Amino acid sequence: MISPLTYFGIHLTLLLPPILILGWLAVRRDRAWWGVRPLSGLVIMIALAVVYTTPFTNRLIPAGVWWYGDGAVLATVWYTPIEEYLFFVLQPILTALWLFQVRPSADRSLAIPRPHRLLGVAGGLAIAVVGLLLLLGDISTSYLGWLFLWAGPVLAIQWGFGLTYLWDVRRSLLVAIAVPTLYLWVVDRIAIELGVWVISDTHTTGYGLLGLPIEEALFFLVTNLFVVQGITMYIWVLDRIDGVSAVTGASPRLPTSSDDR
């Protein structure tokens, strides 16, 4: 199938405009996050996204989980189109620039209760275990299984470190995650409808959300969780270190395990 729109065209028409608008708002609005801290957090998220997602896509594409329309991509590196690598950069930028408008924050010490840390780790690892079980089942759950297995370790790290804080800012966090996720669902649905990429019926469960495969919907939800939680906790840590240093006059330090309440 020949796609009427290329993958790069998706970037130009559907991703770049909201990025430019949100970037302008972040610079202009006094209440938005901007400066070295949020931007350095974004750079870290982009680097992690590229490093961690590259093996994931290069495992699933040759397995036939999804593929691209004729003429929809310019070239591939390994098995992944260069436009997909560009998406690894553009999605965190889009999500982070919206996050900068929301600014989730709460006054909480870095020394969160140990049971909360264990609960966070257990939650992430449980997702990974579910993913492994799905991979051992029918081929129709292979995309979902790989997604859960891939997402679980990251969520275990993030929730293990800051589950209590994330719960404290849950309302603003929900807004920060929901808006870009809903938008990217629409973008994904358009791209699938136009044949820019095709999701395998064999490797998916067949369940969908207004025509969008549930696996794709969960992918964008999970990746936006990574970005929003990561940057939010990054700024939380830097702010708390500054707060401790300003009060005590001592050199900043992160809490050790003995500091946990």
TrEMBL record:
Domain called Lycopene cyclase: residue spans: 20-95, 143-228
One GO cellular component term noted in the UniProt record for this chain: membrane
Main localisation: membrane
Membrane spanning stretches: 6-27, 39-57, 85-106, 118-137, 143-166, 173-197, 217-237
InterPro entries: Lycopene_cyclase_dom (IPR017825)
GO biological process: carotenoid biosynthetic process
Pathway note: Carotenoid biosynthesis
Subcellular location: Membrane
GO molecular function: intramolecular lyase activity; lycopene beta cyclase activity
Membrane topology: Multi-pass membrane protein
Swiss-Prot/TrEMBL keywords: Carotenoid biosynthesis, Isomerase, Membrane, Transmembrane, Transmembrane helix
Protein name: Lycopene cyclase domain-containing protein
